[in-house]
Specification:
By secondary structure, this protein is of the alpha+beta class. The chain contains 7 helices and 13 strands. Helix content is 23%, strand content 29%. The strands form 3 sheets. The protein has an 8-stranded antiparallel beta sheet, sandwiched between helices. Strands 1-2-13 form a 3-stranded antiparallel beta sheet. It is globular.
């Protein structure tokens, strides 16, 4: 073994991580730090598109732009104060905004969005910028820069999947379709990168662990959302050990 290998703190040995009462033993190289959860016990895991495997020990995702862009970031949060069966609805219907805004703001109200044809098995609800511009002008007058709203990270399109009973099973919010992808794919290679780059935030629920998982990736990877969803669910099942002491 080389001196460098002996000195390196990075490996793929299991590291304990907890979500509420649940204990997991996850290989260290899955974590964003490649060491384990932070000092508060929070964790973020990263796998790489397209194989959805972690980087090798010692390969840091932020040391290479291609690795960084191909990263699929997985952030779990244990939920103990909000009913799981209403959590995805709450993502789309914010309790922070006033009832009037929730009713009148086209970026908040699904009924004021443009429903499109299915995309990769998801129901899209696009932000209607014609209505949104009118709403902003009514609220703020000519002080608002309407052109900048197309690239705002706050003004996103919604993609949802529902179960047989019509309840939300998956919610994915992505940069507005009026914003270009910012990158093209040539097989598994990212090419023609022109920032800003469109992204998606994919929310799913793990009822077994009372956990919401937020998964972030480039919008050009949306075509693989089902594979990503299954990988995330399988990852936590694979490394679950037992209830935490």
């Amino acid at each position: 073994m080389t001196d460098a290998a002996v000195a390196s703190p990075y490996n793929d040995k299991p590291v304990e991580a907890k979500l509420g009462p649940h204990r997991f033993e996850i290989p260290a190289n899955y974590f964003d730090t490649q060491l384990g959860p932070d000092f508060q016990g929070n964790m973020r895991l990263i796998v790489q598109w397209p194989d959805l495997q972690p980087l090798a020990p010692g390969e840091r995702y932020f040391d290479d732009q291609d690795r960084f862009r191909k990263g699929v970031n997985i952030t779990p949060s244990f939920i103990d104060r909000v009913p799981l069966d209403s959590l995805l609805e709450r993502i789309l219907r914010s309790d922070i905004d006033s009832p009037q805004a929730a009713q009148e703001d086209p970026s908040l109200n699904i009924d004021l969005r443009l429903r499109g044809e299915p995309v990769f098995g998801l129901e899209p609800y696009y932000l209607d910028f014609r209505k949104f511009d009118a709403y902003l002008l009514k609220q703020h007058g000519d002080k608002v820069d309407l052109a900048r709203q197309r690239e705002s990270s706050l003004n996103r399109d919604w993609f949802v999947q529902r179960d047989a009973q019509g309840k939300l099973a998956t919610v994915i919010t992505c940069s507005s379709r009026e914003m270009p992808d910012g990158v093209t794919l040539d097989g598994n290679t990212l090419k023609q990168i022109e920032p800003p780059i469109a992204t998606c935030e994919h929310s799913l629920i793990l009822p077994r662990y009372n956990t919401r998982v937020t998964v972030e990736y480039l919008r050009v990877f949306l075509k693989d959302w089902q594979r990503i969803d299954a990988r995330v669910r399988g990852l936590f099942d694979q490394y679950h050990r037992n209830a935490a002491p």
